[in-house]
Amino acid sequence: MITKETWKKGILSGVKTTWVLGKVIFPITFIVTILNFTPVIHWVVRIFYPLMKWIGLPGEAAIPLALGYLLNLYAAIGAILSLHLTVKHVFILAVMLSFAHNLLVETAVAKKIGVHAIVPIGIRVGLSFIAAFLINLFWHGGGEAAQYGLVASTTQNPETWTGIVLFAIEKSALGIWQIVIIVFPLMLAIQVLKDFHAIETISKWLEPLTRILGLSSGKTSVPLLAGLIFGLAYGAGVIIESAKEENLSKRDLYLLSIFLVASHAVIEDTLIFVPLGINVLYLLLIRVSVAFLITILTAKVWQRIIVHTDFVVKGEAK
């Protein structure tokens, strides 16, 4: 039963999260919208056009890409909302950003559990560009203008600086509102899971999954669940604590890290792309499928290396 305390904690968490995200998305959307009416955007387009063209994106797409890589998804989405892009452009950006975002913070988390920084960064950025290249190569649709959220994208073209500023404020506020209607139910759902102690139960259900991935089933289900639901940054405490308490092997740490850098916070990181008007189901399937593939392949290669090394060592001993 959901109590008043659950509602209270969920709503409070939603308010706090909205405040934190609002402080990022409002100024980013506002600034990028203003920059659209200055020569700055044209300079960015000219500089990054060769690289962006290779993955099917216009030059200005470098702005949300850089913001997402260095800051977070909300900053990137704030920038996307201020640009005129096609559905294909937005989907490619969403896939790239879902694989690689908040690299500074989330790589620091990976280091804390004993994984070398170059591994998560290399995997995430590599997957990001490979996915973009393949989508651009094989998908020939999505040429229509992107419609953000539940309303059509505006075509206003203010001619005075007062009009431009008001237009930027309106667009920034709309971006926050569309995030709010996703964040509040999400925070409430997470609070319900906490109150009903569902995480421990679900972690037991994940044991078959950990075996498929080549992980130690009894030790890695909790940090795997924490990363899948709360993400690397929010679930960092659980992941780090489990790594220490369960005395996870180096192999488990790396396989766990590889899976989670490709697919973490799957609920939140998927739903926050809803305001961009894309099919988030495809986004989720791509992300999870790739995470499974690279983790299982890594586990098999790792096992072969161990078997080969053991064979060589025994051979030398003889």
Reconstruct the topology from this structure:
Blueprint: H1 4-35, H2 40-54, H3 62-70, H4 73-80, H5 87-99, H6 103-112, H7 118-138, H8 161-195, H9 198-205, H10 207-212, H11 217-234, H12 236-245, H13 250-262, H14 266-271, H15 280-317
Helix pairs in contact: 1-4, 1-8, 3-4, 5-7, 7-13, 9-11, 11-12, 11-13, 13-15
Summarize the structure in words.
With 318 residues, this protein is an all-alpha fold. The chain has one domain (4-317). It has 15 helices and no strands. Helix 5 packs antiparallel against helix 7 (118-138), helix 11 packs across helix 13 and helix 13 runs antiparallel to helix 15. The longest helix is centred in the last third of the chain and has 38 residues, at 280-317. The radius of gyration is 22 Å and the shape is globular.
Give the gist of this structure.
Residues 19-103, 177-266 form the Nucleoside transporter/FeoB GTPase Gate domain. The chain is an all-alpha fold.
